[in-house]
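Sequence of HTH arsR-type domain-containing protein (Geoglobus acetivorans).
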Amino acid sequence: MAEDMTRAILKALAELGKPAKAKEIAEKIGVPTSKVSCRLAPLRKKGLLDSPEKGVYVITEEGKKLIK
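Predicted 3D structure, token representation.
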């Protein structure tokens, strides 16, 4: 299940094609914002996401490889 959520978050960010907040990502994949928010920091630590400014996330090249 966690793996599915990871892929959904990464895919949503790739499709949005721009920096996005947790709320935007959650709306795109149809889950509560809290489900997305708690996963963002661990994904960033793994190098799958980057945060160009506080509360805003983008997918990294490493993250894109995971969803191909």
